[in-house]
Amino acid sequence: MMAKDLSNFLDGDGKLKQLPAKQAIRALAFEYLAGKFEYGVEYTEQEVNAIIGFWHTFGDYFTLRRGLVDSKWLIRLPNGSKYWKNEDKRTHTVSSH
Question: What is the spatial distance between Cα 77 and Cα 14, in angstroms, rounded to a whole number?
Answer without folding.
Answer: 29
